[in-house]
Amino acid sequence: MEKSTKTIAFGQVKKYARVADRLMEFRNANPNGLIETIPTITDNQIMFKTRIVKDKSDPNSAEATGHALGENKGTKAFEKLESVSVGRALALLGYASDGEIASSEEMEEFEEYKKQKLEELLLASTEKLESCTSLGELKTVWADMPVEAKTALAELKETMKQKLTT
């Protein structure tokens, strides 16, 4: 993919090109391309299948298929799933900033998941530090703590160390 495609950043992920920008790039580079989306709708779910062909007049042209499956909850769910499906197919054809196949929504959900897990880790680690009743116990708890918790809770460790030595 050309470097001129606009990108957005997600957490520590390099860069993400939105589906609309990748689609525009595909259309500009492949004027004879084909993009077809096929929804399958049930009461509870929508599944999209997207087929993209770089040159529909060439039987040997590069081609990719992308899928998306989600809950059937109104018009926006339909549109979102179609975009996810198109984005996956584009990514499989090489229209992705850093090789990511995930949609921007999936990237946002993953970043939120990581944030939630870090908060849970910090809460549990804080409780362990605050429950220490001796310097030896504090040392053991600190040694077993993940690096992410140590980085965030270094000040609390020092406060507990002072508390337990007085």
Mean pLDDT score, rounded? 84
Query: Which bin fits the share of residues in helices?
Result: 40-55%
Number of structurally distinct domains: 2
- The share of residues in extended strands comes to 15-25%
- Rg calc: 24 Å
- Spatial strand arrangement across the major sheet: 3-4-5
Number of strands: 5
How would you sum up the major sheet? Answer: 3 strands, antiparallel
**How far from one another are the termini?**
62 Å
Outline type: elongated
List keywords for this structure.
166 residues, alpha+beta, 2 domains, 3-stranded antiparallel β-sheet, two-stranded antiparallel ribbon, 5 helices, 51% helix, 20% strand
Overview of the molecule:
It is a single chain. This protein is of the alpha+beta class. The chain is 51% helix and 20% strand. The protein contains five helices and five strands; from the N terminus they run ββαβββαααα. The mean pLDDT is 84.
Strands, helices and their partners?
Blueprint (H helix, E strand, L loop, with lengths): L7 E3 L2 E4 L2 H11 L4 E8 L3 E9 L9 E9 L3 H18 L11 H27 L4 H10 L2 H19 L1
Antiparallel strand pairs: 1-2, 3-4, 4-5
